Each structure stands twice: as C-alpha cells, then as structure tokens.
Amino acid sequence: MKAFPLKAVNKFDDCEGMDLRDYFAAKVLSGISSVTGIDFGTVDDVAITCYRLADAMMKAREDKR
User: Fold this and answer.
1) Buried b / exposed e across 16-48, counting CB within 10 Å, b at 16+?
2) What phi, psi does 43 have (nearest 5°)?
3) Residues 6+ positions from 3 with CB-CB distance below 8 Å
C-alpha cells in the first residue's frame, strides 16, 4: 500500500508513492528524534524499533477493518 499514490503525469514521472510502512517508520523516527535523555541504542536498534512500530501500526490498521 502506498502512502501517497500518484499517477504519472508524464513519461519522466514514475513515482508511485511512498510505502505506507515506510511513512509510518519515518513518523516514528521523527518522534524518537525529538526525545532527549533516553538511550534508544545504536542506529540499527532505532531503525529496527521504527519498523517494528510501523509493522504494529500496519497490523492495527488491518485488524480495524
């Protein structure tokens, strides 16, 4: 599923939109980045956490339907 699906306007525009999972992970990263005083671990740990939370959001979204 795409977060921002777009139809190609011309032959040079092949953007189909960002994956919703990536969008959620980016939002989580934004939130984590704004928190001070908490050690979230290595950058790899942070990335894993962002995608785990994004996966949980995707699951919650499916469960709601």
Assistant:
1) eeeebeebbbeebbeeeeeeeeeeeeeeeeeee
2) -60, -35
3) 17, 18, 19, 20, 22, 23
Helices (H), the chain: 20-33, 43-64
What confidence tens digit (pLDDT) does each residue in 41-65 have? 999 999 999 999 999 999 999 988 7
Is the pTM above the cut of 0.85? no
Q: What are phi and psi of 21, to 5 degrees?
A: -60, -45
Write out the two tokens for 26.
């980016």
The rounded distance, in Å, linking the Cα atoms of 8 and 58 is 26
